[in-house]
Amino acid sequence: MRWCDVDLELRTIRIEQTIQRVRARFTRDGKAGYRIAEPKTEKSRRVIEIAEMLVSVLRRQRARQAQSRLAAGTAWQNLDLDLVFTNILGGPLDPRALRCELRIVLERAGLPKMRIQDLRHSASTPLLAAGTPLHVVSRILGHSTITLTSNTYGHYTAEMRADAAKRMNRILGGSSC
Questions:
Q1: Which positions ≥6 away from 49 have C-beta within 8 Å?
Q2: What angle do CA 82, 85, 88 make, to 5 degrees?
Q3: Does the pLDDT value for residue 43 go beyond 90?
Q4: DSSP state of 94
Q5: Are 35 and 19 contacting, i.e. CB atoms less than 8 angstroms apart?
Q6: Cβ within 8 Å of residue 35, ≥6 positions away
Q7: Does residue 60 sit in the same domain as residue 13?
Q8: To the nearest whole number, what is the mean pLDDT of the chain?
Q9: What range defines the domain where residue 175 resides?
Q10: Which end of the chain has fewer CB atoms within 10 angstroms, the N or the C?
Q11: Which of 60, 93, 126 is the last residue of a domain?
Q12: In what helix (H) or strand (E) does residue 136 lie, and over which residues does it extend?
């Protein structure tokens, strides 16, 4: 995510690009690095609205990043990419380091192990449980079809199944309990 894609006033994030690691053997100068690329699919490009709480988090991140940039001085690496989340020198986060940090945070919180990709589940399931329509969750996640969202993240909780049974009971004229 780049700062140019974040609008804190409108509370939106534009998803229009990805960052890709480029191996040295695939570059002209023989140096490894990163490049900005287009998302995999047209539906991956989207604008999502973000919660007010996240706006506050992003404002604090911007302030922390400004402090890190000052401390790093000329060693700061984030000038071209303008990334929101970086390592201490402003470069892209290393996926291995990110996985390690996630493991540490989960252990400290007493939560089970999970992959970074599993965080999408932890976002989609509560949205679905709160009654957010499946097609809206699909669009937030940038899926190409609603079927993909349903098949991948539509694992319903026991509470959701019980609620569906109660709703059907009301539809069929049964009691409302």
A1: 11, 12
A2: 95
A3: no
A4: P
A5: yes
A6: 19, 20, 22
A7: yes
A8: 85
A9: 115-177
A10: C
A11: 93
A12: helix 134-141
